[in-house]
Design goal:
Structural class: alpha/beta
Mean pLDDT: 92
Oligomer: single chain
Largest sheet: 5 strands, mixed
């Protein structure tokens, strides 16, 4: 039996869950803006009390490693590392875009077997972080930062296969990619459970000391235009 704490904080949604043998036991989520630093620890405490699990019972911690919000990713990874260090348990880092495919594959049986899945994370303006997968969750492209226009993903959309978009960046792209099928899926710790159990079973864990989020793009610090004095 494996108990895994799952943390996903790479977008506006702060999501924490506990899974047993790849199945979610309990979940806490908030979409009330980027207040992850305050909420993630509270959610962990609430889940442990609710399930009757003590920290020493945990076998591993899984975290969405990005791409996504620079600040959000750092908060989630920091919490995950802290628990792993404190309990001497493995850390599992999972690609956020692949994690988003899990609920689509599990709960959307209406999608054709030849569908192409394209999770999208909002990167502001008309840019998204995206990757294309087949209907079995196998990557068909590299992760990219894409400024979406009518020609985006043309090589995949031109194959005559359903092109399914979802995630925090999909809604703003639906009108531009008029031939795409848009389904409602939000980034969630729910998607981490099965992938994390598989990774743990296969021994695919991270070096806690050196593990960093996958930001995809460098964080740029800008000077505020507001004059304080």
């Amino acid at each position: 039996m494996s108990l895994i704490l799952a943390i996903e904080t790479g977008t506006d949604i702060c999501s924490v869950g506990i899974a047993k043998d790849g199945e979610l036991l309990s979940l806490r989520e908030s979409d009330e803006g980027r207040d992850h630093a305050r909420k993630v620890g509270v959610f962990v405490d609430e889940l442990l009390r609710e399930t009757g699990i003590v920290p020493d019972d945990l076998d591993a911690v899984a975290v969405g490693k990005g791409p996504g919000s620079y600040t959000g990713l750092r908060i989630g990874v920091s919490m995950a590392k802290g628990v792993c260090y404190g309990r001497n348990i493995p850390l599992i880092g999972l690609p956020t875009l692949k994690v988003q495919c899990v609920p689509v594959l599990l709960y959307h049986d209406e999608l054709p077997e030849d569908a192409l899945l394209c999770p999208m994370i909002d990167a502001r303006r008309m840019e998204v972080y995206a990757q294309v997968f087949d209907a079995e969750g196998r990557p068909q492209s590299e992760v990219s930062a894409e400024v979406v226009d009518a020609g985006s993903f043309a090589a995949f959309r031109g194959q005559g296969r359903p092109f399914v978009i979802f995630g925090s960046g999909a809604r703003k792209c639906a009108g531009i990619l008029s031939d795409a099928v848009c389904v409602e899926v939000t980034p969630s710790a729910r998607g981490l459970a099965r992938l994390a159990q598989q990774a743990l079973d296969e021994g695919r864990t991270e070096d806690i000391a050196y593990f960093e989020p996958f930001y995809l793009k460098d964080f740029v610090v800008t000077t505020s235009r507001k004059k304080l004095f």
